[in-house]
Amino acid sequence: MTFDINVAMTWILFIALFPISFYWLRNAWRIAIKRDLSAVATKRGVPPDDAQKYAPYAVAINLLAGGVVIAVIIGVVTAYFDYATWSAAAGTTIWLKLIADFILSRHAHPFMAKADRR
């Protein structure tokens, strides 16, 4: 195996899965167990007024994404997944987690028309 940009990017993706899964599972722990609602559906760093309403969805998104990433890590370490499978699963999970968080935050912060500026 020669070391080229593809090998480097593969290792970067694999090693990045560890802190990503830790962060997502820690967020689920903070929201579900510690009842810290400051990370629920934030928009520009501010949680919604009724964050308790959206907390179960945020926990589900974080647990599901973190669990899939942990499964991918285990699959790579045990050589159960080939490169195409684990990189597709990891990449899709990362993108879908970001999209789901964006949708939840936009749903929790409804669009409000700004006051007329004169």
What's the average pLDDT? Answer: 90
Q: Show unreliable segments.
A: none
**H/E topology pattern:** HHH
The number of distinct helices, counting runs of at least 4 residues, comes to: 3
Strand content: under 5%
Percent of residues in helical segments? 55-70%
Number of E strands:
0
The largest β sheet comes out as: none
Oligomer: single chain
**How many structural units, i.e. domains?**
1
Span of the ends, CA to CA: 66 Å
Helix/strand/pairing class, anyone? mainly alpha
Tell the overall outline: elongated
Compute the CA-based radius of gyration: 18 Å
3D architecture notes:
The protein is mainly α. It has one domain. About 70% of the residues lie in helices and about 0% in strands. It contains three helices and no strands. Helix 1 packs antiparallel against helix 2 and helix 2 runs antiparallel to helix 3 (about 85-110).
Name the descriptors.
elongated, 69% helix, 118 residues, mainly alpha, single chain
What is the compact description of this entry?
The chain has 118 residues and is mainly alpha-helical. It has 3 helices and no strands.
Describe the protein's topology.
Blueprint: H1 5-32, H2 51-77, H3 83-108
Helix pairs in contact: 1-2, 2-3
